[in-house]
Amino acid sequence: MYSILIVDDEPNYLVVLSALLEDDGYEVFTASSGLTGMDQVRDVDLDLVITDMQMPEMDGLQFLHAIKKSNSDLPVIMITAFAEVDKAVAAMQAGAYNYLAKPFSNDELLVNIKKAVNHYSLIKENSRLRKAMLDRDGYAGMVGKSKHMQQVYELIEKVAPTPSSVLITGESGTGKDLVAKAIHYNSPRADKPFITVNCTALAEDLLERELYGHEKGAFTGAVSMRKGRFEMADGGTLFLDEIGEIPLALQPKLSRAIQDKCFERVGGSTTLHVDVRIISATNKDLKEEVNKGGFREDLYYRLNVICLGLPALRERQDDIPLLVDYFVRSMADRFGKNDLGIEKDAMRLLVSLPWEGNVRELENTIERAAILCNDNIIRSDDVQPESLGSDKQKTFGTELDIGQLVPEGAELNDVLYAIEDRMLNRALEDTSYVQARAANKLGITKSLLQYKMKKYGIKKKK
Fold it and tell me: Is the pLDDT of residue 391 over 60?
């Protein structure tokens, strides 16, 4: 039920309007002046204020200004006499939702009320969603509340309402497609098409037809005209996934299509105009590709109006438990295992792993574990990466005298921490702190080495 405050210094008018609105299903509050009306504005969760323009002590315009200072979104309908139209215009400029000049019909009033409360309902819902996004563990299919992910969410909110091109960068498996969808579905184009093109999936000639379509008879087998992805995305968003893989020969036409928002179908001569927002994604360093001559500079700058970089999973380890819980619930629903759970030791192991394949690898690991686990409980053995079971590691494990290495009663986490810290320092010292060489010596990536150096507070010794 919507709550409406009516403010007027004429008691009879308050009685008549209250009865009308209550009969139409609204909860009604009344006040005889702007001063007492402000008490209601502050104390009651209102959906609309209806106020007369002419009142003693505080007139309708002053009352409106006071309301907007308290709640800038709360809609206000002004009731004016015919001779007060100039004041009504001033009220609209000050933020009034609408004004009604006396005399007006009940139907006219009720129609305006319905529009106002529905409008405010949408504003409140959007505000609720924005707040949920700031407090979220996940957003638009992405899961995480780490500092890195909060920055990603905030950037999505900033760029989504704009028409600008966005380049999403990040390692494979970080969720670049989810970010593209989040931008689209939080934009003014949300009710228009979201069309994806995987630039690695098709040969050069097929990719060109996929992007721009073709005319009947353009090539053998073209028995009819076919629209391309640019046409299909008209009014919406075109997502160019793995844009770094697009053949160099196709880049000039793509650059022109993005710049001029026009193109010709393959085999055609008619220029078609479209309104398309471009979002692209890559796991390559496109600037480096430009320097090497593998990617056109003009296309790079047209794609890279706004760059949104996604962190690797190892850079946001705090999010791994949230992701694991999310995937466990997802697999439980998918496989009909309502009591699917995960042991603490398995969770600790998952948090400690480097996840070179990022979120996609983690999801696949949980899916495999959900299928193979016993008693619907995921244990450490169920989530062991294949690399941990290599012959080299098994041989090392059998030769290791654990009794000499580890004191009796030592806890696993303490032992792992101490060993990892010592091995990192030794590798860095042996390689004169050349990180690439140290990472190679340890059998890990340079980015993982940098993460662990930060984790253990390791810095180059002077």
Answer: no
